[in-house]
Amino acid sequence: MTSPPAAPGAGGRPRQRPQRPQSKTGRPDGGTTGRRDLAKHARFAEISPEVGVLDEQAMSQALADDPAAFELLAAMTRATDENLRAAAVRLSASIVLELARAGRPVTGGISRLRTVRGAVDGDLDIDASIDGVAAARAEVRPPSVEDLVTVQWARAQTAFAVVVDRSGSMTGARLAAAATIAAACALRAPQEHAVLSFAGTVEVIRPLVSDTEAATVAERLLRLRGHGVTRLGDALKAAGEQLALARARRRVVILLSDCRSTDEDDTLPAARSLDELIILAPGDDHEQAAHLAALAGARWAAITHPLDAAAALDHLLETRVTS
What predicted TM-score, i.e. pTM, was given to this entire model? Predict the structure, then answer.
């Protein structure tokens, strides 16, 4: 598999795109899309029969029938028509919430027994406490809590880095679907999670340690536009750097990408350096993702429809835990 050359900044770290100021008018940054351009989609007239109107039932049916309709919904969140834009943003938010609720909140791994000295809860481990009790007797004193060992159930916490490919090969319906899935992942993720997007450069939308609300992250994801080359190695390195700050023992990178690239870089070493890598690839273009997963020891799934993503992600997360 080939990948494009890395573009490190100072110190060999990937350059990050500067944060743009929030629009004070509600108008999306980077321009808007008029009805003439929106009408190029075959079902736009059915979904928006007149200015300012969005038929949510027709839109929901279109999304169920054709995953490409997510591209239209994403485009309408940037519509010049303010009423249509507001309605599209509301509908996108409800779909993201539905996707998030479809999957289980991913807060940790399986529970495991651990021994703890000096704890006041748990079950007493008699064998492990013998030495402490014997020492107390030798000192002619009653055993203290510090002399005793208990057994407790502990659940290993999980930290996530969600990485969205916004390069030229992931534009249109693919990017719209990936952004929707990533937004749902952010909503159901534990407190320790980062969200990144990448093409020729890497943008940290939400750092691991952040008070940015999930709804704000979702809105930024849904407004991504695809263009440029695929510097996947830089993106995986940046995700690893974010997770290096995590307190959680389990650290997972969730990559939404076709993993297509044009030149050699260090994608494979970067992928192999991660504790866990899960790849969600487009259903119609997943060969490179499967190839990278096989070489890097990652787990992957082809997502034909965004509504299938929650079940696929749950399965991939559980595969590591139960294997």
Answer: 0.66
Q: What distance separates the 2 farthest-apart alpha carbons in the chain?
A: 90
- Cα 287 to its chain centre, rounded Å, is 21
Distance CA 161, CA 323 (A): 22
277 vs 320: CA distance, rounded Å: 10
List of residues 6+ apart from 3 with CB closer than 8 A: 230, 231, 232, 233, 261, 262, 263, 264, 265, 266, 267, 268
CATH of 157-322, one of 3.40.50.620, 3.40.50.410, 3.40.50.1260, 3.30.930.10: 3.40.50.410
Distances (CA, A) of 9 to 150, 202, 216, 270: 50, 11, 28, 17
Taking 3-state DSSP, the helix, strand and coil percentages for the chain, each rounded to the nearest 5, stand at: 45, 20, 35
DSSP state of 210: -
Write the DSSP symbol of residue 13. P
* Extents of the domains making up the chain: 30-100, 112-154, 157-322
Answer for the pair 184, 100: CB distance below 8 angstroms, yes or no.
yes
pLDDT in tens, the chain (323 residues): 444 444 444 444 444 444 444 443 344 445 778 888 888 888 889 899 899 899 988 888 887 887 778 878 878 877 888 888 888 877 777 776 666 665 554 444 444 556 767 765 667 777 777 888 788 888 888 888 787 878 764 544 889 999 999 998 887 778 888 888 888 877 777 788 999 999 999 999 999 988 888 778 887 887 888 888 889 999 999 999 999 999 888 999 999 999 987 666 789 999 999 999 999 999 889 999 999 999 999 999 998 877 778 788 888 888 764 44
For 207, how many CA atoms within 13 A lie in the half-sphere containing its CB? 8
CB 186 within 8 A of CB 221: yes
CA proximity to 47, closest of 88, 11, 101, 2: 88
Query: For residue 110, how far is the Cα from the chain centroid?
Result: 20
